[in-house]
Amino acid sequence: MPEIHTHTFYHPDGRTLAWREAGSGRPLILLHGWAMSAVVFSEMQAALAGDFRVLAPDLRGHGGSSPGSGYALTDFAADLDAWLTALDLDTIDLLGWSLGGEVAQLLAAQYPQRVTRLALISSTPRFASTHDWEHGLPDVQIKAMARDLRRNYELTMNGFFSLQFTDEALERERYRQIVAFAVRAGRLPLPEVALAALETLRSEDLRPLLPQLVQPTLVLHGGRDRIIPVAAGRYLGTTLPAARYIEWPDVGHAPFMSRPQDSVTLWREFFA
Fold first, then answer.
1. For the chain, what are the domain ranges?
2. Helix, strand, or coil here: 126?
3. Per-residue pLDDT tens for 121-165?
4. 217-222 and 243-248 as β-strands: parallel, antiparallel, unpaired?
5. Catalytic annotation on 7?
6. At the top level of CATH, which class does the domain 5-271 belong to?
7. Does residue 225 carry a catalytic annotation?
8. Could you say which of 32, 225, 258, 263 is catalytic?
């Protein structure tokens, strides 16, 4: 199995951005979801390292990356732009999962000359539902989650991670794995970071940017996603100018953990 190396980028303001890297060839960037870290992609990185130079950064305040003064999508994207510039990565393929998918959408819109191809896994242009957007979580549910995070942070995170999977035995084992590396290994972000990033998810709306995403785009969504409704993935699939939409009916919010080999095959084929 290819070795995954951990590196650190130092911002001019003293903050750090950690990333994990494996393989060689054309750069493929993997962006993790809310309250997670790049470690969640370990299996995918190892499997794809024979075909690509796979880099998985920790978003600010997550994993080994320093907290910042803000957690808007523009803040996450600015960090990544500075990091990519420092590595002289002028053109990349980009994959984002969940929150990472929203960051990826913004990055691809802001830097179309840099992002060659785009993959959005269990993603959405808007996380919260509104009067004109029915494909998100109700605002009252997101606010209740924020309240629960303040009351019992780790217990609420455990509950959130459980929602990423269906109830089958194999899925329960995947849930135990994600809790083991995210919660018990002490890799959760600080509560204030998680709450600020959750507010970003609640408030930001990327729908106006979608016509700008002209890159060939893979949209993959699970039909049993309990965090981002499958209707949001279908919307991306029909709205993005160059989208290829794939739906796995029996999968939840983490397709690459539920069906890792199928994900490797799909990603390798799309980015080839």
1. 5-271
2. coil
3. 999 999 999 999 999 999 999 999 999 999 999 889 988 888 888
4. parallel
5. no
6. alpha beta
7. yes
8. 225
